[in-house]
Amino acid sequence: MSAKGRPEREFRPLGGSEVREPAGPPQGQTPECEARTSSVKPRAWGDHNDAASVRLAHCAKTFPDGTRALLPLDLEIQAGETVVFLGPSGCGKTTLLRIIAGLAQPDAGGRVFFGDDDVTARPIERRNVGMVFQSYALFPNMTVAENIAYGLRVRGIRADERRQQSARLLDMMRLAGLGDRRVDQLSGGQRQRVALARALAVRPRVLLLDEPLTALDAKLRESLRVGIDRLLRSLGITAVYVTHDQAEAMALGDRVAVMSHGRVEQIGAPQDIYYRPASAFVADFIGTMNRVSGERDGPSLRFPGGTLRLPDHAVAADHAMFRPQDARIVEPGAGALTGRVAAAFFLGSMTRVVVDLPGEQTIVVDTVERRSFVNGDAIGVDIDPDALVILES
Amino acid sequence: MLVCAFLVVPVVLSVLAGLSQNFFVGVKSGLTLRWVAQVWSLYSGTIFLSLALALECLAATLVLGVPIAYVLARRPGRMARLFEELLVLPVAVPGLATALALILLYGEWRGFRASSLFILVGHVVFTLPFMVRSVLAVMAAMDLVTLEEAAASLGAGFFKRFFGVIVPNARYGILAGALMVVTLSVGEFNITWMLHTPLTKTIPVGLADAYASLRLEIGSAYTIVFFVMIVPLLVVMQWLSRERAPVLAGRK
Predict the structure, then answer these.
(1) Which of A285, A384, B187, B225 sits at 20 to 30 Å (Cα–Cα) from B177?
(2) A370 CA: distance to closest CA in chain B (Å)
(3) CB pair distance less than 8 Å for A125 and B157
(4) pLDDT tens string A220-243
């Protein structure tokens, strides 16, 4: 089942032949030999029928020392969907992933389902998941190809079929020719791709990724992020991705679950999370959010720096929030707010202006205007009322 | 220079003594293999017993030591540290004391006391910590827990994980430990001397016996035999410790 509103989710051959090509046995080969040796008929990697939905029912986790790592949680991840758990370290996201993987048990009463299958009591080796670790955890005693084929070997798949399969994955991951290398001869990005290939080789029902890009430098991270995104979409695999990097979460997730202190603060499409945060934590954690507070005066919020007209639904709010890019810089006095430039940072694609409002409030405004700002200048700021975020307390 | 004076010169002298016709006359008396041959005829039994003991000892320390090291690596904690210290105790305590304790405890069991198995127990007690430490050092250096979790996520049960991933990745530690165990077992004197019977003599005990009761030349020839056995082991050990350095360095 495809996640709604993401048409790219439908199978399509991304990157030309990259995904399509290994779809079936090459035409030249004898098909009967293929059929005889294969217990599992090689299928297209894009056609991932095994993908299962994941359902967590009342899963909580308390550590032996009494710390509550995870508060009771009910959650359903649809088959083929990518859900990203995002949060600061210690928020319980890794614990949650480990519970899904079978590396940790939920507290009594919690259940984990893959499809209709209750897998709670099963250890990880019998859940048929694929897992990518932050440190990759490649086996140093094996070559790249052996690493990729390890899961197949454990399952007793024949050597020639293992070779075929790992060659296919090496191709898919653009690692062709590196199959005989030792793991310590690979770069960080290559190791990461091997780890991904190894996890995919067993055709897992669920792919679990634990901060797979954290160990890489920023530039590589970005390019691999694109690669993983294309891969997950073309495979249509159910994926659970854990990260503390919000850009990664936004880019990869069909849905993003923002976590804090063992609780899911909000779960929804990246746009929802970003534009309609459900709690102060989400608002602050994702991106930069301005917050101004003042006194209610009918439909407006009044404070020393100006007056903001609030949307009608903001019945009792005494504050308003907005994103830096939703504010426009205007002539002093012309906008809703007036203040003074406290600092301006030219960031290339935009300029970030820090504006001091009278009464100890500071806001940040991003502008693409090609002008320079002098500290202390009076400046006007206008905000579209639709862009205001109000949290009813 | 000092090393030379105290290590090399005595060894050379000893070897020469074992090969010369008459030690008191010196090398002038002519070189001969007679003494070596005599050693062989008198003490070949001790050589085979020593080798057999060393191999049995190796087998026992492998079977015991590798799993112990694994458990210690998996569960670091105060109990694990304590256990590790306990294991090392037989190395710190004089061998005589260990042997006495063994005799006091098991001396009554005549069959056991008289068999070479008794010596084997002494050797295992003495060499086990070397195996455990050597394997543990390597296991602590790799990310054991995550490697095992990775193998498990791919469907490997415990035994497949242990023998397919953990043991192969700890192989340098196991090899270094194995050589250490064999070398120590072959050369062990203190414990063995206390535990041996006239029928269960090992090379070092035989050596002491030869020096004490026979011609000096025979004792020296015995030393040659001992060297021939132990030096290759030491060389391999050296080579191994040099070999594994780049492997560990290359690993992240």
Answers:
(1) B225
(2) 46
(3) yes
(4) 888 888 888 888 888 888 999 999
B245 at interface of A, judged by CB pairs closer than 8 A: no
β-pairing, A255-260 with A263-268?
A: antiparallel
Nearest-5° angle of CA A8, CA A13, CA A14? 70
Q: Which of A264, A269, A292, A300 is nearest to A279 (CA)?
A: A264
CATH of domain B44-202+230-250: 1.10.3720.10
Q: What is the pLDDT of residues B54-97, one digit of tens each?
A: 888 999 999 999 999 999 888 877 888 888 888 888 888 887 88
CA separation for the pair A341, A350 (Å, rounded) = 16
At the topology level, CATH places domain A54-128+203-283 in: Rossmann fold (3.40.50)
Q: Among B143, B152, B251, whose Cβ lies nearest the Cβ of A124?
A: B152
User: Over the stretch A177-192, which tens digit does the pLDDT of each residue have?
Assistant: 888 888 888 888 889 8
Position of tokens 């035994």?
A: B159
Domain ranges for chain A, please list them: 54-128+203-283, 291-387
Architecture of domain A291-387: Beta Barrel (2.40)
Which residue shows structure tokens 């090459």? Answer: A26
pLDDT 10s digits, B198-237: 777 788 887 787 777 776 777 777 788 788 877 887 787 7
Q: Which has the closest alpha carbon to B138: B176, B90, B165, B109? A: B176
Amino acid in the structure at residue A174: R
Contact between A111 and A118 under an 8 Å Cβ cutoff? The reply is yes
* Contact assessment for residue A115 and residue A255, using Cβ atoms and an 8 Å cutoff: no
Q: Give percent of chain A above pLDDT 90.
A: 20
**Sign (positive or negative) of CA dihedral B106, B112, B113, B118:** negative
Q: What is the pLDDT of residue A97?
A: 92
- Separation CA B46–CA B31 (nearest Å): 25
The CA distance from A377 to A331, in Å, is 11
Which residues of chain B does A100 touch, with a Cβ-Cβ cutoff of 8 Å?
none
Phi/psi of residue B131, each to 5°?
-65, -50
Whether A72 and A110 have beta carbons less than 8 Å apart is answered as yes
Query: Are B169 and A141 inside 8 Å of each other by CB?
Result: yes
Interface residue of B75, B138, B153, B169 to substitute, partner A, most A CBs within 10 Å: B153
